[in-house]
Amino acid sequence: QVQLVESGGGLVQAGGSLRLSCVASGSIFSINAMGWYRQAPGKQRELVATIIKGGSTNYADSVKGRFTISRDNAKNTVYLQMNSLEPEDTAVYYCNADGYWRAPFASWGQGTQVTVSS
Hints:
mainly beta; globular
């Protein structure tokens, strides 16, 4: 089992920045990839960015050049640095961990609200 706890959301003006953090605990060794997803009101949850065990990253087209995903293995933490925020980035952001321990699993955090005012 892997548990995820997000933090760092809040209210920011358009053009501002926020950094989200996700601390993982439990069977850390079983994680193959971690990522951030978001869900705006009335919309489906969508991928924002992922980072795999080898360090490769992937981003949604809508955030490329503005968001950066990174990790600190010593702290079991994944970050999402969000710059040049736009009102369209307003959503609940969820941390995700995918891995394998006796069976494939996907763990989710509780979510953190990001609100960007115009």
